[in-house]
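Q&A log
Question type: sequence-to-structure
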Amino acid sequence: MDLTKGVPKGMVTVLIADDHPMVREGVAGLLTRHQIRVVGLAANGRQALEMYMELRPDVMLLDLRLPDQSGFEVLRAVLKTDPEARILILTSSQGDASIYKAIHLGARGYLLKGIDGATLAAQVRHVAAGGRSLSEESVGKLTRYIGAEKLSGRELEVLGLVSQGKRNKEIADLLIVSEDTVKMHLKHIFRKLHANDRTQAVVIAIQQGLLEA
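Response status: OK
Response body:
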């Protein structure tokens, strides 16, 4: 069934992609009450892409955490097929790196779950009209991330293994490097993240969206 049929001219249409049924239905209810037509509800990344291609909504509201693939992958896939797609991230992920990555990949905005219905509806309309939407908090985090010294790919790899509970010797064996090299990477990681130890470094990295919890 084509849910876009019968949509009054000028009414904004939205596709919601989120793996939690209560979130999907709750957000749909909020938008409907503000005269925005929800044309589709997707529970995973595959559905989100298929439904976007079929329905071509004015805006896609996309969560970053989906069961089959990340929201970033969906973002890439949709924009590859439709570079003009207006995708607005609506997520609980507050990491600096997540915000940067989403905007860098082409998202039109980044909002956090918990936003009130009137504000969400206003931001959806703003994005549908060609605008961009970033909360004040997201702007601050984005600015901070851009100005911060970044972890290298190898440092992220080391930190990922640390988060799995690997010790220096295990990490060295897995990466085929010396323990001294691992210690050097950890020293750089601690400095860049302003962390005092391994545990704090992992916690900070998760908070910033550099690692998955």
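Response note: The domain at 13-146 is CATH 3.40.50.2300 (Rossmann fold).
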